[in-house]
Amino acid sequence: xxxxxxxxxxxxxxxxxxxxxxxxxxxxxxxxxxxxxxxxxxxxxxxxxxxxxxxxxxxxxxxxxxxxxxxxxxxxxxxxxxxxxxxxxxxxxxxxxxxxxxxxxxxxxxxxxxxxxxxxxxxxxxxxxxxxxxxxxxxxxxxxxxxxxxxxxxxxxxxxxxxxxxxxxxxxxxxxxxxxxxxxxxxxxxxxxxxxxxxxxxxxxxxxxxxxxxxxxxxxxxxxxxxxxxxxxxxxxxxxxxxxxxxxxxxxxxxxxxxxxxxxxxxxxxxxxxxxxxxxxxxxxxxxxxxxxxxxxxxxxxxxxxxxxxxxxxxxxxxxxxxxxxxxxxxxxxxxxxxxxxxxxxxxxxxxxxxxxxxxxxxxxxxxxxxxxxxxxxxxxxxxxxxxxxxxx
Length: 393
Hints:
By secondary structure, this protein is mainly alpha-helical. Helix content is 82%, strand content 0%. It has helices at 3-22, 28-35, 39-42, 45-67, 69-88, 93-121, 124-135, 144-156, 159-179, 194-206, 208-239, 243-253, 255-271, 273-297, 302-328, 335-361, 365-385.
């Protein structure tokens, strides 16, 4: 199995969640019309998916430590495809959300096992660099997925996006079955025993570096998940933009992910993991402050907002990619559990915060941007205050 295949495959696994959320954005208005429910209820298709994905990570990570990465990937993708088909055939939003819940649970195999796969074969700065390259595939979410989603909605209304996700899942399963070589050569059937699992989770939290970045991951992830969930309403309420124009603008801001990970890999090589993370965190907070200030002054326009969101997305991915590497790097023998812990905490926390803030932000740009100032300043302050071990510095 070549390094290029591993990076491509893990990148597609890492992109599974983002793709599965962002492809639904152009379908929000179609779902509102087709299912006869308010847009506020349609928005739930994203946090429901990610909430169940968070729960699933507690299962798939340890299971991959016990039974190997490949068979667990195949099992998870099968559940993901089944959930997509249920949602595609639904006549009510309730059934759609049940399908999304199953999709989300199955999708948990993606990010958690992708990170474990990379940790199986890399460590230290090389792990962070490889994680950065693989994470650039997350651009399939904000760049490719909305455009694909718009086309599928034009062809088959909102049900088309779930057919698109079915095809994505089948493609992942085929790649895993044909091309993936098992990387977990020390499978431990006892890894899923509750007592052993509790000990392993305790080891993750006992490590100062892992504990710090696990706890930070939830609020950091909330920033990007809130943007994704609120973006159709933000663009419409602030700039009167929807449909193809919204899809194209949202995709354009996603280019920041590719740029950020490209720069991140080089910054890590030259400066180290923590300096790159600190720089990105400061840019993250500064961008949020600029968006809020321009919005408050009434001088924000769609070009300024789009450009600043490109930077915002780029900085977020640098911070998140490096934080995940710092969590799992000390835990090669329990990489699946470590990956599960950071995935569970980040997605559960961010999904809960999205649910709680939907009625506060109400799809309006000023309250949303002020919320992002609070989030990004907390993240930047915490990262600047952290004093790493010598290996992470």
